[in-house]
Write a structure and sequence with these properties.
With 416 residues, this protein is of the alpha/beta class. It contains 15 helices and 16 strands. The chain has a five-stranded parallel sheet with strand order 2-3-4-1-5, sandwiched between helices. Strands 9-8-10-11-14 form a five-stranded mixed sheet, with no helix packed on it. The protein has a four-stranded antiparallel sheet with strand order 7-6-16-15. The relative contact order is 0.10.
């Protein structure tokens, strides 16, 4: 009798092999998937997804690929310790070629012709590079050059780079400044928090055919989080071992004691401090109490203000999904409707291929540089943009004016 029969499970709930049917959509994973989906419609830059080891990047990629339409041709390169020539060969092999014993110029010609042919046939071509943290700077430069193949309207090759946190450090190096300028979206998948850890466990047990309340006790979840640190792969390992310990002890449930027995079997120590979450909290604690906020977005419905948001420089997403920075619960708003990019030059709004689009003065816009006071319509809602730096500068000028020494005539008026 296996533990599947003992616990009345249809299949093993905590396997380590990636399985899209078990994918748990945390807010982070949903956002990362939305960013990958944006490459299909926007096609004018890289998307970079990073995450700690075991946070589910590969499962996320497999789920994303399984949902692609038939008009999309894709290649996935996961062996990345390659020279530039070997990398081109790997890409062409994924696209069905036999590119060996050819010079680099011939490889580039083959790839260019393939991309042009696919574009002419109405196909979209996607290149995904997994484990991209292992790519050398020369290969990354080669990828940048490939991304430059375009028509007068759009890029022909869409590119997603996925890898471990080291990829972020590599991209931030001065030598890759040109590549980073072509990165449209970057997102880092961190560890799950306590609530998400519980939801993750319950989700996998439910998919495996079990009511989680019948198998894992309340105290077991906290112990799992303490020792797995919110990393999905470690959660799987610990929960699977805990099930085996409970099965060996002829118990019908997994409680905190069984999880601790599994911890002892695995010889683990508390891992929460090794997931990066504590270091992130320390980094936040070292920041000034107030972050310089430069963008304010007022959300209106029927002329009435329903929410006001303010943000520092960076990228924010507007949409119907609760994981967005600007959340608008409306059937006329897409899950990820638009993005706002604030920088030293102001704020840029861009439609993320939404169903109902963006409008200014009844004119539909795709990408627009906003000015203080601009109003953008989406569905029955309006976004009013305000540049907080403009208000601050005006306030500073007013203070300076008020602090100016009084002229003689003004002084006499005050004295009266």
């Amino acid at each position: 009798m296996s533990y599947l029969d003992h616990f009345k499970l249809n299949e093993q709930p905590f396997r380590l092999t990636p399985d899209p049917s078990f994918v748990y959509w945390s807010k982070q994973h949903a956002r990362a998937k939305a960013y990958m989906e944006s490459t299909i419609c926007l096609a004018d830059g890289f998307v970079v997804i990073t995450g700690e080891i075991g946070t589910g990047k590969t499962t996320l990629l497999q789920t994303f690929l399984a949902e692609l339409d038939d008009d999309i041709v894709y290649a996935v390169v996961s062996q990345t310790q390659l020279t530039p020539t070997q990398f081109l060969q790997a890409v062409l092999t994924e696209f069905g070629f036999k590119p060996f014993n050819k010079r680099k110029v011939e490889l580039l010609d083959m790839l260019n012709m393939f991309l042009i042919e696919q574009y002419s046939n109405g196909k979209k071509v996607l290149l995904i590079v997994d484990e991209a943290q292992n790519l050398t700077r020369k290969v990354l430069e080669e990828i940048r050059l490939l991304s430059g193949i375009e028509t007068h309207k759009e890029k022909i090759l869409r590119i997603i780079l996925a890898g471990q946190p080291e990829l972020k450090d590599t991209l931030d190096s001065a030598e890759l400044k040109q590549l980073v300028q072509r990165v449209r979206l970057r997102f880092h998948i961190g560890a799950l928090d306590r609530v998400e850890t519980r939801e993750y466990i319950d989700h996998r047990l439910t998919v495996a055919g079990c009511n989680p309340k019948d198998l894992f006790t309340e105290d077991s979840y906290d112990v799992v989080h303490r020792y797995a640190g919110g990393v999905p792969r470690l959660i799987n390992t610990l929960c699977d071992t805990a099930l085996l310990c409970a099965f060996a002890g002829e118990k019908d449930v997994v409680d905190g004691d069984e999880v601790m027995s599994a911890v002892a079997e695995l010889n683990w120590t508390e891992r929460e401090s090794t997931t990066g979450r504590y270091s992130q909290l320390r980094e936040i604690a070292r920041r000034p109490e107030t972050v310089s906020r430069i963008t304010e977005i007022e959300v209106r419905e029927d002329g009435q203000t329903i929410a006001v948001y303010s943000f520092p420089a960076g990228r924010i997403i507007v949409g119907r999904s609760p994981d967005n920075e600007v959340y608008i619960n409306s059937k006329f708003v897409s899950r990820h409707h638009a993005q706002l990019i604030s920088d030293d030059n102001g704020c840029l709004i861009e439609d993320l291929n939404s169903t109902n689009g963006l409008f200014m003065d009844e004119k539909q816009i795709k990408k627009h540089r906003l000015h203080d006071g601009d109003i953008v319509s989406l569905g029955v809602h309006e976004l009013v943009y305000r540049d907080l730096r403009t208000a601050k500068n005006a306030g500073d000028e007013g203070m300076e004016k008020n602090n100016e020494p009084l002229e003689e005539d003004d002084a006499s008026v005050v004295r009266q």
